[in-house]
Design brief:
- The chain is 36% helix and 21% strand.
- It is built from 14 helices and 17 strands.
- The strands form 3 sheets. Strands 1, 2, 3, 4, 5, 14, 15, 16 and 17 form a 9-stranded mixed β-sheet that branches. Strands 6-7-8-9 form a 4-stranded parallel β-sheet. Strands 10-11-12-13 form a 4-stranded parallel β-sheet.
- α2 packs parallel to α3.
- The longest helix has 21 residues.
- The protein starts with 8 loop residues before the first strand and ends with a helix.
- The mean pLDDT is 96.
Length: 462
């Protein structure tokens, strides 16, 4: 039997390193050796000598290397409806935008996904997710378009295949033609999982079961969706406890608050993560900690829609897994996750814990290892350790925006958004010197603009 081929190696050295491992190991000057799609070794000083098959050496002087950022909540389709309803709270914002969102099609979904993914990837995201739940009748293969855009860009990706079956006629918010039937939603979700989900260690595409929210989903879809996910062995995702109005809605309709409702439908567990979780009492947090239910914290969107400040310090203290999310770009127009490191830290310091709420390293952990935990991939990504997948980012911190900040982690969290010199996913470069390598950024910008204008015309004519 022939010996296995020696993998190609990339060596990065002379850089500061924040591993975000269990001990928060850091090196003021160190190296990372990537072999194939995995991290082979990492440490202080120079890389080992005599490495075979080195295809690239990167001088990381003036840079910080971290794990790639992990986005845990997003709605890509909103890229083509940015800048609308900018002074609305969540409920009024949804009412204003659902008539537009209900008219998206496959071409629009692909253009929006390209724009959303491109903006995140340029800012250090190596693992993205999209909670897509708007499937208008006759709109084409939206899931395939979104997954195709992620594959083309080279980003590791989770599609949270969403659904809605509670429309205006049933007391929900979406137009009637923009929702699916209970049976149709479950069938289409199962088909998507079977077609696209890859459970392997180095999987580039995974699928979660993700009914939208109590506002737009029947109890049966929640209950049967949870059963479907566990039968197929995939994760579950939805919105939870985002606003005071949601709590009132759940109490009026179900006779209990959101967390108790979720538990009654099978939606608490270590295979579940919820977006937002802004309005959680002590009992809610304890239930999440007891069951291992994760949280996608979206500080900018929560501020944009005046939803409130999530109790992230209390969640972390209780042992709740917490990651960061951009949320849809109609409620976070920048579409960048690296700015959420800073915003998570600053916004949480406005809460009860004040300056003790979060520090720079906790913010970085939320955006990396915390996100990997929430997506169920903490053994594969989220920290820089030998044997883990080579998803990492080289941040430039010797320029005008950061050079006078002595601590590298403080520089990228407290400082301006740091430029990305190199980003690897699965050991493969996807960003160099701040530019996407595998797609045409200018073409993506033109396509997104054209599709936004087409959607606006269709909505106006309807």
């Amino acid at each position: 039997m022939a010996a296995p081929a020696d993998p190609q190696r990339i060596v990065i050295e002379n850089c500061a390193i924040a591993t975000v491992d269990a001990d928060d190991t850091e090196y003021a000057s160190g190296y990372v050796v990537v072999a194939g799609n995995k991290i082979e070794s990492i440490g202080a000083g120079k890389a080992p000598e005599g490495l075979a098959n080195v295809v690239r050496r990167v001088d990381g002087t003036g840079h910080l290397v971290t794990p790639g950022l992990v986005n845990t909540h997003h709605h890509f389709y909103q890229w083509i409806t940015r800048g609308l309803a900018t002074d609305h709270n969540l409920f009024n914002w949804l009412v204003a935008l659902y008539p537009t969102w209900a008219r998206i099609d496959e071409q629009m979904a692909r253009a929006a996904a390209q724009g959303s993914l491109g903006m995140m990837a340029r800012g250090g995201v190596t693992t993205a997710m999209d909670h897509h739940y708007v499937y208008p009748q006759g709109s084409g293969d939206l899931s395939g378009a979104i997954i195709g855009a992620a594959s083309e860009m080279g980003v590791r990706f989770t599609l949270a295949r969403g659904s809605m079956d509670r429309s205006v006629k049933d007391g929900g918010l979406p137009p009637d033609f923009a929702v699916e039937t209970l049976e149709g939603a479950l069938s289409a979700t199962e088909e998507t999982v079977k077609k696209f989900h890859d459970a392997s260690f180095d999987s580039m595409t995974q699928v979660a079961v993700a009914p939208c929210s109590p506002f737009s989903v029947s109890t049966e879809l929640m209950r049967q969706g949870a059963e479907l996910a566990r039968r197929l062995g995939v994760r579950l995702h939805t919105h939870g406890s985002e606003t005071v109005e949601e709590e009132q809605f759940c109490k009026e309709l179900f006779g209990m608050g959101p967390t108790d409702y979720f538990e009654s439908t099978g939606w608490l567990g270590d295979d579940v993560w919820m977006a937002h979780c802004v309005h959680m009492n002590d009992s809610d947090i304890a239930a999440f900690a007891r069951t291992g239910t994760g949280v996608a914290h979206c500080p900018s969107s929560n501020a944009r829609l005046a939803a409130g400040i999530a109790r992230v310090p209390d969640m972390l203290k209780a042992g709740v897994p917490v990651g960061l999310g951009v949320d849809g770009t109609a409620s976070n127009e920048s579409g960048e996750l690296h700015t959420e490191l800073r915003n998570a830290l600053l916004i949480n310091r406005l809460g009860a814990h004040r300056e003790a709420a979060l520090n720079a390293r906790q913010a970085l952990r939320l955006g990396t290892f915390g996100g990997a935990q929430v997506l169920g991939r903490a053994t594969q990504i989220g920290s820089l350790e030998a044997g883990k997948l080579a998803d990492l980012v080289l941040w430039k911190i010797d320029g005008i925006g950061h050079s006078s900040i002595a601590d590298p982690v403080t520089a990228i969290v407290f400082g301006a958004a740091a430029p990305v010199t190199l980003s690897l996913v699965n050991g493969r470069p996807i960003v160099e010197d701040g530019r996407l390598l595998h797609v045409d950024e200018d073409a993506i910008a033109r396509s997104a603009r054209d599709e936004a204008q087409r959607l606006a015309r269709i909505t106006a004519e309807s």
